[in-house]
Amino acid sequence: MFAVDRLFLQLFIFCLFFQSNLCFSSTRTAILPLKTKLISFESLPRPPNKLFFHHNVSLTVSLTVGTPPQTVTMVIDTGSELSWLHCKKTSNTPSTFDPLRSSSYSPIGCSSPTCTTRTRDFTIPASCDPNNLCHATLSYADASSVEGNLASDTFHLGDSGLTGTVFGCMDSGSGSSSTPDEDSKTTGLIGMNRGSLSFVTQMGFPKFSYCISGHDSSGVLLFGEANFPWLGPLNYTPLVQISTPLPYFDRIAYTVQFEGIKVSGKVLALPKSVFVPEHSGAGQTMVDSGTQFTFLLGPVYTALKNEFMEQTKGVLRVLDDPNFVFQGAMDLCYLVELTRTSLPPLPTVSLMFRGAEMSVSAERLMYRVPGVVRGSDGVYCFTFGNSDLLGIEAYVIGHHHQQNVWMEYDLAKSRVGFVEIRVGA
């Protein structure tokens, strides 16, 4: 395993040598610094009529769009297709893209093939607005939504400009329920799934990778080959692909075959059928950088929760409060003395996929809930949640469990690869 600190140092020195926050080489490899954005826990909405579910950490990158270039900050989301930018400045969204300032900006008409055929995988069909422009509404699992018109413009990677890149120019005042604190920090979202309009598909790169540091807010996003001599062999698991449309199966997500879970080497006694999608498509397993934590369907979550509690009995103090459910789905939480500088030793949880395993250990198993204190104790929650409580009929592997892991999405060979990268040394 290679040290994360050394990885970031090498790549960032390389970028600084070219005096840019982005590197682009003649071999079609682009490197962008990756950041994590923390959203204030107190600012997140708590709707009385729905479960509270909202990420309070997002992965972001900065790049430039338009002619002349405008700097934008975008959330990286491997679970979404269409990239979009806020195009209407409000008090909640001071960070916006102004299409009137870009000579290369071009709106897309609703009769365009882009609107009529390439939007077929949108959950809400594209429509025609009063100006005959292609109108899109995008909704997300946290109940937020954005809407606006499809357009094209130049997205800049280093010295090269990717002209005609399709994205959504969104009116943040049209039904968006994202929070002001989150909107103020980002200009939009960059869709990275396997759809025809995703950013990575439009760029034509056969693969992309990223690595997130587990101890600070830094990371890297790389488009193209990661030909680094210090990067060890990756463990690959094939993507599950279904050509027939199913009501609950996202065909353009990065879907892998989940096969089981181990806790300190002990395989949970679960039937294989619980990991296989149903005839409706419900029960798929998606790798998603846009989701913070990992969510499991009810029976699997309950089995993992019970085994983890059994193996940490006498090591951790359970928070005995049935009304406290973090992010609407994480109901296993613990009390830890505020004076502690580190957590006690914890069992390793291994996620078993076809042909590969992902180990989750130590700090990645617990998350300190910001701003929540019980007496002289802080509250830490188990970083696996119950999908059933969210109404999500899927397994979702979030970015928290991808920390200190080199993640590779190989579109050409239809597989996802990963290898753990050690912090320090």
From TrEMBL:
Pfam families reported for this sequence = TAXi_C (PF14541), TAXi_N (PF14543)
Q: Name one GO molecular function term.
A: aspartic-type endopeptidase activity
- Keyword Hydrolase listed: yes
Q: Does the keyword Hydrolase apply?
A: yes
The active site annotation covers: 77, 288
Which Gene Ontology biological process is one annotated for this entry?
Answer: proteolysis
Q: Which residues form the Peptidase A1 domain?
A: 59-419
Signal peptide start and end residues: 1-23
Q: Which keywords annotate this record?
A: Aspartyl protease, Glycoprotein, Hydrolase, Protease, Signal
What domain of life? Answer: Eukaryota
Similarity annotation: Belongs to the peptidase A1 family.
Q: What is this protein called?
A: Peptidase A1 domain-containing protein
Gene source species:
Nyssa sinensis
